[in-house]
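Changelog-adjacent note: as of this version, every example in the card shows the full chain rather than a window. The one below runs 366 residues end to end.
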Amino acid sequence: MTSMLPQSVTITDDTMREGLQIESPDIPVSEKLRLLEALGETGAKVISIGSFAHPKWTPSMACIDEIAQQFVPKPGIRYTAAVFNKKGFDRADSYYPKIDVRGRRFGAHVEMCDSFARRNYNRTQAQQIAAIDGSVAGAKQAGAESASVALGNPFGSNFEGPFTLGQRLELLELMFGKWHAAGIPVRKVSFLDAMGWNMPHEVRETITAIRDRWPEVEVFHMHLHNTRGATIASFYEALMLGATEFDTSIGGMGGCPYCGNGRAAGHVPTEDFVHLCHELGIETGYDLDKLIEAAVIAEEVVGHPLYGHVSKAGPRPHRDSDLYPLNMPFVETLDEAAHFRKGPGVYEGQISPWQEGSALIGGARV
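Full-length structure tokens:
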């Protein structure tokens, strides 16, 4: 496999949408705004503020208009939102340019799983495919120079089982064909894996096959749920093949009420993925320390522990000033593990086996 590691990536923080949609609808708007404010300090370039969905189906998003009206945008950040139909688009677009959903104008999305399409979008796969013609016609009329395609749950379904590479390419062939018939190239492919079936080798083979068949594709966008714990490895494979757009959320919170996994679906934690990118020498624009602080605030807002690692254990301590003291005593609890940001007082009084001057051979005391 030839590495195409990108110099920089765009990581959309999806905490306010993906993360909060599966949390309690009783979280006060003031707390959600506090979290959004903290996310705005992290260096994020793109933040989704939520979903303009019907509150009957997504109760946690019932306050989306209040958030849209009240939050104070920070310079340099594109604030966007999830929209699923024209009504949702029009609601979100009424806040333009404060909220920008116009970048998604020319594209098409089809679910590999008909059952999920019915459960999540109240549409069949056939209806999604039929709708592409209207999208293509509208794009053609608007003078679109390129388009994007999104494949929903490309790797498998909790309701229908696994999908093969051949099945993925067959559906993509249909979608690409409709855009090509109108003379519009497809520059971007998105993977939307709500049910968390992604595995690293399948991500690798799929991106490789798409690059081989459609070299016009310039951008790969990865929205993969971490349901089975493999997604950061899948993200790594995507990075190695040059993918540049990723969705994550603070602490890994997130999920889909229609996939059968609830909060267990989860996301790759923003702070963990940013840490990985930085260790690989990839620019993200994020301040990792600010991300960790935002993760702490997120746990306060939702009222329970979240699922990230770097926010609890800290980043790898590269600078001499960040290395742990040799005489550090036992560290057992998560609160004690937070010494990297709280200071040594959190483990004061713990037992310590340290002996000054003891010899170390191969990392073991003798």
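Structural remarks: The chain has a mean pLDDT of 93.
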